[in-house]
Ferredoxin-like protein in nif region (Rhizobium grahamii CCGE 502), 64 residues
Amino acid sequence: MAFKIITSQCTQCGACEFECPSNAIEFKGDNYVIDPKKCTECKDQFDTQQCVSICPVAQTCVPA
């Protein structure tokens, strides 16, 4: 399972894009999106998902 960004809550700060170790997050159109094919949920790399840990708005990066 991958993570997704709740676009209605996203402030478009861009922090998650640079924090993602899988390069799964990018700005497309008017929103940041997570490519589910690239998202590894940071397994075997970190104890928590990096998009979740860096996002300033709670519950914006969530399991898809």
